[in-house]
Amino acid sequence: MTAVLRAQALGKKYGRRWALRECTIDIPAGHIVGLVGPNGAGKSTLLKLACGQLEPTAGGIAVLGGRPGGTPAQLAKVGFVAQDTPVYASLTVAEHLRLGARLNPRWDDGMARERIARLGLVPAHRAGKLSGGQRAQLALTLGLAKRPDLLILDEPAAALDPLARHEFLQHLREAASEHKLSVVLSSHLVSDLEQVCDYLVVLVDSRVQIAGRTDHLLTTHHRLTGPRCDPGRLPADQYVVSARHTDRQSTFVVRAGAPTHDPAWTVSRVSLEDLVLAYMDQHTAEHRRVAQEVRG
Ligand SMILES: Nc1ncnc2c1ncn2[C@@H]1O[C@H](COP(=O)(O)OP(=O)(O)OP(=O)(O)O)[C@@H](O)[C@H]1O
C-alpha cells in the first residue's frame, strides 16, 4: 500500500537552526494519524514540508508517492489547514466557497454549503469579522470540501468549543470512512486524539520516538510498579520508555511483546495519554535515543 507520508532523514533549517532534523517516518494510507509532541518539536515544520509549503534542507519526503506540491494533480490530492486557520479577512464566507469551487477539481459544494448552514455561519459575513472558532470552522470546511485523499491539519480543533470539537472530530471520522480519506493531524489535546486517531506518531526534538497503530501501541506498552531499582535491572525484553522513582518505588512505562511475569512487579495497562507523556518525558528521552542508536 502507498504510504501517505514517507520521510527519509528529512531536515529543515531556518537560518542556522534546525527546526527538524533526521526525521524518518513511514505512515501507511487509510488512517487518522495523530501527530503529537512538545512545543517546538517540529510538528508544524513537518506538516508544512508535507504539503509543499516548505522545501527540505536535507533528506527527502514523499506524500501519496509524489513530491509535495509538485504538480497540480498532487496539489488536488492533499488538503492542508494550517495552525493559524488561514482565511481571507476581506472575503465573505460565500466567496470562500466560490473560491474553493474554482480552485479544486473535486470540490464538494453540497457538503460545504450544508456544513456552513449547520454551523450557523452567515454566507454574507466577512471572514475577518468571524470569531477565532468560526474562522477555524470555515477553514476546516474548505479542507474537507476539497475532497482530498490526504487531509493535513495543524492543531485543527484548538480554537473550537468542546461541542464543536466533538462534532468536527465525528465529521472527520465519517469522512475518513466514507471517502477513504487519510488524515494527519497534530494536536496537544490527547483526549481528541484518543477519540479519533487510530495511528499515533510522537515527535520529540524533531525525532520520531514511536509510530504505529494505537491499538498495537496500547497492547505492547505496560506500566510496571515495584521496589525502587535501576532501569538496567529490568528484564532485557522490557524496553524502558520512561522511569519515575520515589524513595521506595519505581514506576516504568515499558514496551514489550508480553508483560513481565516477575512477581516483584505490578503490571497495569497504559492509556494513550500515559503513552504520549512517557515518550515526551525529557528525563528519559536521551536515554532512549542512546538505546535506539545502540540497537540500530
Ligand atoms: N519561520 C520560522 N523561522 C525561524 N524558526 C522557526 C520558524 N518556524 C519554526 N521555527 C522554529 O523551528 C522549531 C520547530 O517549530 P515548529 O513550529 O515546527 O514546532 P511545533 O512542534 O509545531 O511546535 P508547537 O507545538 O509549539 O506548535 C522551533 O524551534 C521554532 O522556533
From TrEMBL:
Domain ABC transporter stretches: 5-230
Organism, scientific name: Microbispora catharanthi
Lineage of origin: Bacteria, Bacillati, Actinomycetota, Actinomycetes, Streptosporangiales
Pfam families linked: ABC_tran
Any GO MF annotation of the entry: ATP hydrolysis activity
Full protein name: ATP-binding cassette domain-containing protein
SMART domains hit by this protein: AAA
Entry superkingdom: Bacteria
Keyword terms: ATP-binding, Nucleotide-binding, Transport
UniProt cross-references to InterPro entries, sorted A to Z: AAA+_ATPase (IPR003593), ABC_transporter-like_ATP-bd (IPR003439), ABC_Transporter_VariousFunc (IPR051782), P-loop_NTPase (IPR027417)
